[in-house]
Amino acid sequence: xxxxxxxxxxxxxxxxxxxxxxxxxxxxxxxxxxxxxxxxxxxxxxxxxxxxxxxxxxxxxxxxxxxxxxxxxxxxxxxxxxxxxxxxxxxxxxxxxxxxxxxxxxxxxxxxxxxxxxxxxxxxxxxxxxxxxxxxxxxxxxxxxxxxxxxxxxxxxxxxxxxxxxxxxxxxxxxxxxxxxxxxxxxxxxxxxxxxxxxxxxxxxxxxxxxxxxxxxxxxxxxxxxxxxxxxxxxxxxxxxxxxxxxxxxxxxxxxxxxxxxxxxxxxxxxxxxxxxxxxxxxxxxxxxxxxxxxxxxxxxxxxxxxxxxxxxxxxxxxxxxxxxxxxxxxxxxxxxxxxxxxxxxxxxxxxxxxxxxxxxxxxxxxxxxxxxxxxxxxxxxxxxxxxxxxxxxxxxxxxxxxxxxxxxxxxxxxxxxxxxxxxxxxxxxxxxxxxxxxxxxxxxxxxxxxxxxxxxxxxxxxxxxxxxxxxxxxxxxxxxxxxx
Length: 485
Prior knowledge:
Elements: H1 15-34, H2 38-55, H3 57-70, E1 79-80, E2 83-84, H4 88-102, H5 113-130, H6 139-143, H7 152-178, H8 187-208, H9 212-216, H10 231-251, H11 255-275, H12 278-294, H13 298-314, H14 317-323, H15 333-336, H16 340-351, H17 370-373, H18 386-416, H19 424-443, H20 457-472, H21 475-479
Antiparallel strand pairs: 1-2
């Protein structure tokens, strides 16, 4: 559909309503604090954001972009008024979706066929298969509170439905982008979320007083679990966010935005280093390498040399030690992989790889795998390899469809990355999304999942924005061939 035919309705409710909402927010928050009820204060935030979403669903989408990346940290409420599941992000998502539907917006914005057929359908099918195996889960996972369900309904809720909320939110963001005159505004909530997540990790490290050498040790991999995310997960989140910011910086002509992006990337890089995640380090280096390759010129090379020189001077020795873990011991593959070969991958390949090769054994099937039951595998909730997990859970068919979906995403972002109809800022953003997608696929060999996970919420926000931009561009422009540079 041509951009000229879109109805943006950018007038919105006007400043008067915004002032009224702020006053109402202040009143409700003041009551909550006065009564000593933190839950009441958090509820007031959800109420105000929900009201804003009902007035204009695009406001709800903006709030969701801030809340989604931080929804996994420990200080984010898991429930309100004593009801688990009724939390700010779920309430806001429901309000935003209701507002979108009540306004009779184009439902096609929420229904891109490749997403639902290639990505969501295999996850749902694997969830249904897995729901039949809840009673087969090794008791260890229940005894150590690694799972919080006891029946098929709880399994489907926690393992299948909740992660797909990320997809729904991404589509709502895309719908908002499609109906906005200035989609560049949607970079602001991403930057805000990056600051919150970065300062959370930095502040936690400073408050703990832990030394860098201790933080880099293999025994400290669970250090950030108190924040709500594993160090490797945080590192992957930071790496993808860095890709979005770096390429946006490289293309935008807005000097103020450039300055803000430099400051944001500086704080983000410090947080990424503190995770001591080798996967994140590799992703970070790959992203910088891609930037240098795609943007190669004398100026870019000079900046890269300067930044690399400063980084080398300031780089703690603990970082180098973490990167070279295992290589000094003769290059033993099991040591380099932090035990993954012998304790996880080997037993799963031996006992479960060919158990159900076409359609898999169900989501998170590692918890009832033969390797887990016979005690040959370290009892973890995922196999620390996104591709192996997809094979075990969804089989060759599910893995193939999932990879086909990300190929579709790759092509869509690649096209937008050099689309003449987009501003330089947005072209840079989607070039960064291409690099972020490659980081996601690379780091998947050592962990995470191809399913929607908290550490890749920034990537999913970019995917949502991709659908939004494609919906607003002329058809030939949205589907024409392009290159990232």
